[in-house]
Design a protein that fits this description.
About 50% of the residues lie in helices and about 20% in strands. With about 120 residues, the chain is an alpha+beta fold. It has a 3-stranded antiparallel sheet with strand order 1-2-3, with helices on one face. It has a two-stranded antiparallel ribbon with strand order 4-5. β4 and β5 form a beta hairpin. The longest helix has 16 residues. It is globular.
């Protein structure tokens, strides 16, 4: 899903559009490793650290055309995103979770059916 942003500058270019996708299992593992590498204890996190945790997960759900994926980590987003852009991207991730995926089912409905799969 493409999301229009207020924008940020990186290496002399202004980026005003992000690509947002659902968090994958691999992305979640990468985010958890990023959080560990930052030395953040999620249970006792300061406000700044809690936002960095959110940014770690968000970094695995967004991309920007022209910026290598390995550059876009929690610290990059923390330093470059405007507050309004941060909220816009979070809203987009929530919308993706509710978006129909085919045959009238949504991701919410599928996740509710997981108990019946075991």
């Amino acid at each position: 899903m493409k999301v229009e942003l207020l924008g940020f500058e990186y290496q002399g270019k202004v980026f005003k559009q992000a690509n947002v996708r659902l968090l994958t299992m691999g992305g979640q593992c990468t985010a958890l490793e990023m959080i560990d590498a930052m030395g953040i204890d999620e249970e006792n996190a300061s406000h700044k650290e809690a936002i960095l945790v959110d940014m770690a997960y968000l970094s695995q759900q967004v991309s920007f055309d022209g910026i290598p994926a390995e550059i876009v980590d929690a610290q990059f987003l923390f330093e470059h995103l405007a507050t309004d852009d941060y909220w816009q991207l979070l809203e987009a991730t929530l919308m993706l979770k509710k978006k129909p995926i085919g045959n009238g089912a949504s991701l919410d409905n599928l996740s509710n059916r997981q108990d019946g799969l075991a």
